[in-house]
Amino acid sequence: MTTVTDTHARIEQMVNSHDVLLFMKGSPLFPQCGFSSRAIAILEHLGVEYGSVDVLQDPEVRTGIKDFSQWPTIPQLYVKGEFVGGSDIMMEMVESGELATLMATKGVKKTA
User: Fold this and answer.
1) By C-alpha distance, which of 78, 74, 107 is closest to 88?
2) pTM metric for this prediction
């Protein structure tokens, strides 16, 4: 049985191993909910390199990520180890230009 501390440590390691990481339902090629699909579309629109974690494949991460971030829903976006928000916040930030600015300020790599 995995403890909450083990799951928290695993999530922290995942978050810190990518400049941009999206915890989502499904994969970038096959998102399993509209919110995850929207989040991927935003990241693709920004043209940044990102990683993803399919929470449907790991029930401990699916539950643990909500405690880790103190945010109740998925998807969840992390940039350089910092929690940014879910798809609604991502949408607001991309519309205002704030998300592109955040990516540039944090030195996130663009896709080739």
Assistant:
1) 74
2) 0.94
Q: What is the pLDDT of residue 4?
A: 67
Report domain extents, the chain: 4-105
**Residue 112: its pLDDT value, please?**
72
β-pairing, 20-24 vs 51-54, is: parallel
What values do phi and psi take at 3, rounded to 5? -85, 165
Q: What share of the chain is helix, strand, coil (3-state, %, to 5)?
A: 50, 20, 30
Q: Determine how many CB atoms are found less than 10 A away from the CB of residue 108.
A: 19
Q: Using CA atoms in the order 23, 29, 26, 36, what is the torsion angle rounded to 10 degrees?
A: 60
* Per-residue model confidence as pLDDT tens digits over 50-63: 999 999 999 999 99
Report the relative pairing of strands 76-79 and 51-54 from DSSP bridges: unpaired
CATH number attached to the domain at 4-105: 3.40.30.10
Give me the residues of the chain with pLDDT under 70, please: 1-2, 4
